[in-house]
Amino acid sequence: MVDTFERLVAEADAVDVSGWDFSWLDGRATEERPPWTYQRSMSRRMATAARALDIQTGGGEVLAGAAPLAPNTVATESWPPNVRVAAERLEPLGVSVVEHDDATPLPFADGAFDLVVSRHPVATNWAEVGRVLRRGGVFYSQQVGPRTSIELTEYFLGPQTGPQYRDPALARASAEAAGLEIVDLREARLRMEFFDIGAVVYFLRKVLWTVPDFTVDRYRDRLRDLHERIARDGVFLAHSTRFLIDAVKR
Predict the structure, then answer these.
(1) Residue ranges per domain, the chain?
(2) Where does residue 150 fall: left (phi above 0), alpha (psi -120 to 50 degrees), or beta otherwise?
């Protein structure tokens, strides 16, 4: 008979992790939400925009949930499995989904949009955001902050002491250098709870930068130890950090 550890790990290692929907974790993990209700606030901005761009849309889940959208809305995504998922979800809403390598310039004209949004971008190309925004246009983004999920990262990789590039102060300076004026910049530290080892495996497969070289086979011994820890304590506790940046192009 397969033991509980092997069953949970095999299940989580086999499930599809494309898109940016975390509903598979319902009842198995929780993450506290920031107080600023990003999706709802983004929807209010969509209501007054004519042309909007969502950068790194993932599977389009957040953008779709902000409908009704601006009359002309475009979304970009770089990971091919997510491009397919996003197109299936967003094109019926009138959104054009563009496959785009994040390391290259955005394929849009200068000043093409009056609203640019992005939730949890891997990195923000501030110069490109400033370029595609018209004067008076708004950049509205919820970003992953420094040392997010650090407890998970350090459990598998040991102490992390390198520089933190996901820094709100650095984001402010980069935005201002790109011609944006910061209207609002807020931070939050949020509680994350994992109730079984399958939830941990799923999260690490989906949020790739937490443990960049993660595979079940590579970390099986550490996973088993963590499984036993969760069985003993009932939960593995970690924390995420988020910051909200609201800026306008002057």
Answers:
(1) 4-249
(2) alpha
Burial profile 197-228: b = 16 or more Cβ within 10 angstroms, e = fewer: bbbbbbbbbbbeebbeebeeeebeeebeebbe
How is the chain split among helix, strand and coil, in percent rounded to 5? 35, 25, 40
Q: What is the CATH number of domain 4-249?
A: 3.40.50.150
14, amino acid identity: A
pLDDT, tens digit, 9 for 90 and up, residues 95-142: 999 999 999 999 999 999 999 999 999 999 999 999 999 999 999 999
- Flag whether the pTM goes above 0.85: yes
CA distance 127 to 123: 12
pLDDT in tens, 48-104: 999 999 999 999 999 999 999 999 999 999 999 999 999 999 999 999 999 999 999
